[in-house]
Amino acid sequence: MRPENYQAISHPPSNEYELNFGPNHPGIEGNYALKVKLHGDVVVAARADGGYLHRGFEKLMEGRLWIQNIALVPRICVPDPVPMEVCYSMAVEALTDMEVPERAQWLRVLQLELSRIAAHLFTFGGHAATTGMYTTMYWGVADRDQVLDLFEEWTGGRVYHIYNIPGGVRRDMPAGFLDRVSRTMDYIESRLPDYDNLFFTNQVFVDRARDTGPMNQQQALEWGVTGPNLRATGLAFDVRRDDPYLVYDQIDFDIPTEAPGDAWARTLVRRQELKQSIHIVRQVVEKLPSVGGPVRTQIPNPLAWNVPAGETYTRVESSKGELGYYVVSDGGDKPHRVHVRGPSSMHAVQVLEQLAVGARLEDVAQIMFSLDACPPEVDR
Amino acid sequence: MKEIDNPIEAPVDQSRTNPLARVFDELVRFCRSRSMFMLHYCTGCGAIELPPAMTSRFDMERLGIQPMVTPRQADILLITGYVSIKTLKRVILTYEQMGSPKYVIGICSCTVNGGMYWQSYATAKQLDQYLPVDLYIAGCMPRPEAVLEGMRKLMDRIRSGEADGWKDYYRRYDWYLGNQQHLFGDDWQTPADVIGEASHYDLAEPGTEGEHTRLLQQCQKPLEPQQTFFQIGGSLEKKGESHE
Ligand code: SF4
Hints:
Largest sheet of chain A: 3 strands, antiparallel
Shape of chain A: globular
Radius of gyration of chain B: 19 Å
Structural class of chain A: alpha+beta
Number of strands of chain A: 8
Helix content of chain B: 25-40%
Shape of chain B: globular
Helix content of chain A: 40-55%
Largest interface: A-B, 48 and 48 residues
Bound molecules: iron/sulfur cluster
Order of helices and strands of chain B: HEHEEEHEHEEHHHHH
Strand content of chain B: 5-15%
Oligomer: heterodimer
Number of helices of chain A: 14
Order of helices and strands of chain A: EEEHHHHHEEHHHHHHEEEHHH
Strand order of the largest sheet of chain A: 1-2-3
Largest sheet of chain B: 5 strands, parallel
Number of helices of chain B: 9
């Protein structure tokens, strides 16, 4: 910096000052910024400053063929890409009135739940790191890698799989794969008590996360919060149960809730969901061998595939909350309009701005991680 | 925009004729290559493979590579994926704050040619037009092993003296600045005094200054305290000109 610019760093005229929190900050989840106005170290006002990850997905999708978009959508939310593929495929299937073979539906459920496990393990890691417990992060990421290994064997990709396509899934699973899924589930389940000891019952975490960023049920509903963040306020709403898609109505699972709605409750809900997801995966592993048949309905030549005109909205439960695709077709080979209803835009913009007020500066990162917003999906 | 040609320089510094000095240079380069502090600025989706590379499974630290959180402490800038134009400004700001010598790794296909988003209006397609990139790790997205392998490659290149993108930035600053101005507008500026640094490192060459740096000097206004983002009285309206 040039010397004449030094004086540009002015002293704040009062106790109130503004601070840029992010985009390059270890306490921020990804490339995202929050402008905070502080009094001492208490946040008086906060304003999200997104756009760093903007790529214009919805516009890009209008310029690509229906099938090409499958490669594009998982990039919208990197830690949890499968719901994007599934939801988009479901929208195209709804427009074309296409039947998905039953085996493909079970395979999709397996994919979705494995993806949820991976995403939740990753989130704990980030949240733990904001409270200084880096071991949890190291463990979480390493255990998530076990799930990614499964994906890699199954689909060839660790993070982006491009596996769910309109009409079903690309191919069946490799031989002996279900055994490896069970083994991995056993492993992850055996790790859960370790996580409890290390992180969830850790006094440091409990003290820091309790009463941090509390949100009550009324507020949550007004702000459009969904997913684990809503369930942490005591409302058991889950798209998987309340608007079942795929074969979720044949699967038995609980919807964990917590009442307080603070950072602690939100993380705890995810911890319990992990257990439920393992439970669901086990059921799929049990039932899948008896569900035979094809895994894909033949689609027309994808390079000249004109989807009938119409519009549709499909939704799935992603690890962050309700994810929806509103797709309009004008009968052409490309979507006319696509809108993604992502859960994170509510969480990271409206909710974060409100919850950060009154928190101390060091807790802002925790609030952000406990909301588990996914910045690329906010910016899209 | 006029482009300035600059062939990549031979790594050996011809002015250092004393053999002892060369040995010393080699030693310095070796040490530099073994202490790589990287700034992990998650610019894009490629960043998701960095945590596995850094944590217990692949463990980058065993190679002596450590994540750092501030640019002042870091030697390597990882650009992990596409950079949107808004991010690119911050990336350049970050790069210019890092102390020399500094190295840039472009991870992901998106940094090479725009990758998936070649069509997008919001992303910068070719990173090396705006920053000197020492090494690209292509792939969508590169696996942790690829990231590690890239790091080792960079180590080799630092040791052999090939990784001198930072010198290139000083030598051809006018060209880089021109590209930046093309994207961000003529009044683009950062607080860093690159020309001063270039002469400090004895790297000021004809390409350092030119029409674009003159434009910079004309448009440069002293940095002022940022306009307040919040209005007094609670309403969260942004006042005045957007800083973006
Ligand atoms: S190359 Fe692929 S993974 Fe990397 S930033 Fe681009 S889209 Fe994302």
